[in-house]
Each structure stands twice: as structure tokens, then as C-alpha cells.
Please model this.
Amino acid sequence: MTSINSQEIRYFYRNIVKNGNVYRIKYNNKDYGEFKKLSEALYERDCLFYCNFDYDLLVECDLENKYEHMELPPFPKKRPKGRIKGLKINKKEREGEILFNHKKNKFYIQKEDEIYGEYETMTEAYYVKKTLMDNNWDKECLKNTITKRKQLNK
Model:
């Protein structure tokens, strides 16, 4: 396993707190679950971030658990206070964002200055955004998705 410095470990385990023999996900002073396995807590945290901590969207989340068979770095015994320093990761630049157009009453995906379609539901927009992210924002991958949507609407 490659070595990870302390700042990267702290970012890797962000929003996870060890309390006795269990791991808890904390975000905005709220608990979002209690897990005995660290890999399950990491997976649930990623799903919650993916769904903006919305439990209604979490039910439909289909992210794969990439931590299940991964050799995880040791969980830090003591967490230093303060913000995580280092490279600023701008999530909007990396992942884009889902916005709502109030004039058209539709959701759309925007990454930097480029707009990727208009969608009736936020769930559909999340699915398309995930597909785009998996394919490095190549619009060609959406042709198959649009075909499936047309078949479902018939």
C-alpha cells in the first residue's frame, strides 16, 4: 500500500468519528449512522455526500462499495482540531452541479460554463451526472441513456 501523509488520512476519514467500537458519520453536528465496520461507514458517507445528505435520494443511490476489499490506512487515534489544510478541492469544478431553471421548471447539469441537458426530475439529473462523471464528461455516453429514457416513456 502506498504511504499516505497525515493530512491525506485526515481528509480520507473526514466526517467519520470513532466512538468506542463503532464509527459514526457526523455532518453539521448531526449523526448519520453508526457502523461497526469502517468500510461500511466510508461507503455510507460517500453515498450521503453524493445525495447531499438527503435520505430520499439515498434510497436510490447505487454507488459501489469501493472500500469493502480495500486495505484501509489506520484510523487516527487523535484528531487535531481545525480545518483540513492542503489543496483546495473545488467540488463544483471537479463534479459539476445540478441546478434548477425556474423559467422552464427543469433541472440541468452545469460544469464550468457548459450545460448538459434538461431533466424533469432531480433523480434523473443525478443519474446523468453520475454517468457523465464515470465517462470523463464525454457527451457520447448520453446517447444510450436518452434512448433508454425514450423507451421507458412509450
Notes: Residues 19 and 35 are 10 Å apart (CA to CA).
